[in-house]
Design a protein that fits this description.
two-stranded antiparallel ribbon
């Protein structure tokens, strides 16, 4: 499943490093590192000094909030503004940045120059950002870091000066910082109060397009952003297949999601708005539902058909190397292309005059079926703990797996067991099921024995 590392061409500082000799899989550090951040965050968010006056929460809600923030989900069992003071909100924002930007990316930015840490942290970043190889990770880490600074600074400036300008200066700045970072990290946390998300800004054009732009660029991934910049500056002539596939799939999904949501809800959820606002709200939910979790309309009265559309978008999620989760746009695209190729009786899928390898198809199939199985198990477990409508619990599960954060409003009323299962699903969804299972299975080798082949009737 991992890319092969060329030991002969590796710098001596990496090849001879003491950490390379240790048989420690980098995925283990990702899993247990993420778990450590979640548990530390839960303890801090449980302590009274992070709460508003007279607000007390139990540990499962603190754990749920920490898990949601670190996995950049946005599902909340207690309202962020109503429950947490400035210190609590700051901790949540730190957790969002740790989880959203890939916590090992930040660490690698400071440590990759060290020969003692080189290969180990390079492997961390490769797995954290779901990269194809570990080539020149330091350069990538610097690009990631400065890309984040630029996009978030622009978002903070616009939101502070043109959206939250009716607040006092420091509150406007804090709201601009919090919501810009939450949007770019595809986290979905807000400071609007009353579990309202962004429903107070449904008709605000500047706010909608700023948040959508931050979500979009945070969701397509750093590799794609870098690729676009290189083509624009004529450092290279063409986008990579990865970038073309991500951009094409993302744009198609946004368009189809917006049209589908409008068609299904224009006379139901959206009937109170004018035509322009209907299309803007539909576009916003299409962009946000893939991984961000913000909403400008109340989803409590969504039709079943619209819930299914949003479940599909949440399941697909963002793109590799981004701040979002889900099975990823490229996985979905590869599966569609493989299906088309199979119907046409071709051995391997083709797109943009290039061929996709069989190994890539197998990974996509593994991720798809593993994800479906994990979600199904969690939904079944939730039905054992809570007597809620199956459609709403299914929606919550897809939202948790895709680290989206959209909800029909049942999250605060769920039992301890269901909240714990959703925490587990957010954790797995952030790491992806394949990564999670790889860690569990690491070190268990099987002999390469070829058994006799026999056909089985299908269909």
């Amino acid at each position: 499943m991992e890319n092969q590392i060329d030991m002969n061409n590796m710098p001596l500082s990496l090849k001879d490093g003491p950490l390379l000799k240790r048989k420690v899989h980098p995925l283990n550090f990702l899993v247990f590192g993420l778990l450590f951040v979640i548990l530390l965050g839960s303890l801090l968010l449980w302590l009274p000094f992070t709460h508003n006056d007279s607000k007390e929460i139990n540990y499962i809600d603190a754990l749920f909030t920490s898990t949601s923030a670190t996995t950049v989900t946005g599902l909340v069992s207690v309202d962020t503004l109503d429950t947490y003071n400035f210190f609590g909100q700051l901790i949540i924002l730190i957790l969002i940045n740790c989880g959203g930007l890939g916590y090992m990316t930040v660490i690698s930015f400071f440590f990759l120059n060290s020969s003692a840490f080189g290969l180990k942290y390079a492997m961390f970043v490769k797995e954290s950002l779901n990269l194809p190889s570990i080539g020149d990770i330091l350069k990538l880490a610097k690009k990631v870091f400065f890309t984040i600074i630029v996009f978030e600074a622009i978002g903070i400036g616009i939101l502070t000066l043109f959206v939250f300008d009716n607040f006092e200066v420091m509150k406007s700045l804090w709201y601009g910082i919090f919501h810009a970072m939450s949007a770019f990290n595809n986290a979905g946390f807000d400071l609007m109060g009353g579990f309202s998300s962004l429903t107070g800004y449904t008709g605000n054009v500047i706010f909608n397009f700023t948040i959508m732009a931050l979500i979009f660029f945070g969701g397509i991934g750093f590799l794609v952003i870098s690729d676009i910049i290189n083509v624009r500056k004529k450092r290279k002539r063409f986008l990579t297949l990865h970038s073309e596939l991500v951009l094409t799939t993302s744009i198609i999904l946004i368009f189809l999601g917006a049209v589908g949501f409008y068609a299904l809800e224009h006379s139901n959820l959206l009937k109170q708005y004018d035509e322009g606002t209907k299309w803007m709200a539909s576009s916003f939910i299409s962009v946000s539902s893939r991984t961000a979790g913000f909403t400008t309309v109340d989803l409590a009265s969504l039709s079943i058909s619209a819930l299914l559309v949003l479940c599909l978008l949440m399941f697909i999620g963002a793109s590799p190397g981004s701040t979002g989760a889900g099975i990823k746009t490229t996985t979905f695209a590869v599966l569609i292309l493989w299906l088309v190729a199979t119907i046409k009786n071709k051995k391997e899928p083709e797109v943009f005059d290039r061929r996709i390898s069989r190994d890539t198809v197998e990974k996509a199939l593994l991720l798809f079926f593993t994800s479906v199985l994990v979600i199904a198990i969690i939904i079944f477990g939730m039905t054992l703990f809570d007597d809620k409508p199956l459609s709403k619990m299914t929606f919550e599960a897809f939202s948790a797996f895709g680290t989206v954060g959209l909800t029909t409003g049942i999250t605060p009323d769920l039992s301890f067991g269901s909240k714990f299962l959703l925490c587990l699903l957010m954790f797995i969804g952030r790491l992806t099921p394949v990564t999670f299972l790889t860690v569990i299975a690491y070190g268990k080798r099987k002999d390469n024995i070829h058994l006799l082949e026999e056909n089985v009737a299908i269909g």
